Amino acid sequence: MERWWRTLTAYISRPIRSSIWLYKPLLWAIKKRDGFYRSLSEQALNQQIEHVGHELKRLGLTHKLTIEAFALIREVAGRELGMWHFDSQILGGLSILHGNIGQMQTGEGKTLTATLPVAAAALAGVPTHVVTVNDYLTERDAELMLPVYQRLGLSLGVVIQGLSLAERKQQYAKDIVYCTNNELAFDYLKDCIQLGQFDQSLQLHALRSMPSKHSSMLDNLMLRGLHFAVVDEADGVFMDEATTPLVISGDSTPQQEQTEMYMQAYEVGSKLVNEQHFRIHKHARQIEFTAVGEEFIQELTESFGPLWHGRVRRIELVKQALTATHLFIRDRHYLVDDGQVIIIDEHTGRRMPDRTWEQGLHQLIEIKEGCELSDPRVTLASISFQNFFRFYHHLSGMTGTADEVKSEFWRVYELPVVDVPTHKRSKRRQLGESICFTQEQKWREIVTRIKVLQSESERPILVGTQSLKDSEWLSGLLNHQGISHQVLNARQDEAEAEIVALAGLASKVTIATSMAGRGTDIKLEPRVEAQGGLHVIVTGLHDSSRVDSN
Fold it and tell me: Which residue from 218, 221, 220, 135 is spatially nearest to 178, judged by alpha carbons?
């Protein structure tokens, strides 16, 4: 009954929460406090910080205290960073604080916007997580906003790859934690393993009320619960990666029978003929066997061991072998580095060295590439991003591309989308598409276009490709023409910060896979900006126009 009532009230309030006009009176009230805060001396401002923090912890984020907190944080940001929040950023911060997805266009300053709801919640004593999509953004955003949080008396933690368990626990104990969605979710799973039979939503108050025998268990947990989260690039995390399985696995004892079974499955698959024994559905990424194919598989495996006697298991093994052969493409879905198969994240274009495919698929791809077979793994805990983020008491996010998935945000997460107006009119010009009849013609036109642009001005050029293979193919063509350039894909993802930092320089050409570098700032030289800014070439359209916008 309680759940039904909560759903009903959320549905009724949706159009109200998603209206930007709901937050305009709050904006005006915050701006009215400008005069008061500008007049304060440094000592008086420190006293006001202490007073507002005390009141927020005592009363919570009431209407009046929200106004006071935002005005205070805005003044602190102005004094510490030289950046006072624009009206659009205040509206974005208010929409996030009220549990919405704030849709803010590229260049509107989402990093600074986040300080308003994040610092307000932290001042009220709520453990707060700021979630980004990669380590580079996590460290960059935390470093940029650190002076604001320090002046407000708030501690700041940063969780990235490579930290020990003790270091992670220390960082999660801070008032505000900047982290990636991957690190956060996997640390949550590690806590779930520690909790064992207890509820996955980490309702730690229940454990703390139990006898002292559970104190050692609590001491080993990293997270302080899932209270308040602001997710940057929310559509990528909540939608594109929603059903991505996050799995913590342990080593299992490799069995000779299992290794032999994978080798046999790959051998059988290599003897089957497309369209005669099976059909490939590339869009659905599925293999379908014909009746002739199933009979042929049975004939080929009659002399194999008992693991092959069951029809369902037999068909599944060969299907995995064909999937590895025909549906997983080197340098698009994975790369081979130093004899190891490393997964490429389809959504970010980045290497995922700690992930492996399940149900023998990883081992079958290793056979395909002539690599040494890795040991099979046993699943200890798993969850999807969709289920993980729905555990938060307060969830919100920011993105520049939410329109296309507005209904999904509501249906899955009960998060309305608030379209935040821009601070200034956009200068971006979007040109038309050019349709080519062959791949050769397309690449030839792109190279010609780059040469023409370079002859006309010093504008930097960013070329977005759909796969690692495409990026390296184009790189080869540019090398042949003597055009200097940088490449950002899964092979160079560790140098992302350096490559992106150079992408806005005069006459610079950068090739990047579709989602590599998402969320990063490309700083333009003044003379480049005067000539028209960055020129972007997209080498192919995605199924989703939202990805093209990114």
Answer: 135
Cβ atoms 312, 327 nearer than 8 A = no
Q: How far apart are CA 104 and CA 98, in angstroms?
A: 16
Contacts of 41 (CB under 8 A, 6+ apart): none
Using an 8 Å Cβ cutoff, are 504 and 460 in contact? yes
195: nearest Cα among 180, 181, 165, 203: 203
Res. 16: pLDDT tops 80? no
- How confident is residue 514, by pLDDT bands cut at 50, 70 and 90? low
pLDDT at 402 over 60: yes
The predicted structure's pLDDT at residue 212: 52
Q: Cβ distance 356 to 343 under 8 Å?
A: yes
Residue 401 clears pLDDT 70, i.e. is over it: yes
Distance from C-alpha of 29 to C-alpha of 512, rounded to nearest angstrom: 44
C-alpha–C-alpha distance, residues 414 and 412, integer Å? 6
- Token digits of residue 491: 């092979």
d(CA 209, CA 214): 9
Which residues, 6 or more positions from 36, have their beta carbon under 8 angstroms from its beta carbon? 71
Q: Exposure pattern of 311-336 as b/e (b: 16+ CB <10 Å)?
A: eeebbebbbbbbbbbebbeebbbbbe
According to DSSP, residue 421 is labeled P
Are 190 and 382 a contacting pair, CB within 8 Å? no
Closest listed residue to residue 445, CA positions, set 435, 431, 456: 435
Structural domains in the chain, sorted by start: 16-247+389-419 (3.40.50.300), 253-375 (3.90.1440.10), 439-549 (3.40.50.300)
- Does 393 score more than 60 pLDDT? yes
Bridge-based pairing state of the strands 334-337 and 340-344? antiparallel
Residue 287 phi/psi, 5-degree rounding, is -115, 130
C-alpha 132/C-alpha 180 separation (Å) is 5
CA 242 to chain centre: 10
Dist. CA 61–CA 101, nearest whole Å: 19
Give the pTM: 0.80
pLDDT confidence tier of residue 51, bands split at 50, 70 and 90:
very high
Residue 444 CA, distance from chain mean position: 33
Mean pLDDT of all residues in the chain? 87
DSSP 8-state code for residue 481: T
Provide the H-helix boundaries in 156-244: 165-172, 181-195, 204-208, 215-219, 234-235
Neighbours of 357 (CB within 10 A): 18
471-512: pLDDT as tens digits: 889 999 999 999 999 988 877 666 676 777 788 888 899 998
**Residue 384 pLDDT > 60:** yes
> DSSP character for 133?
S
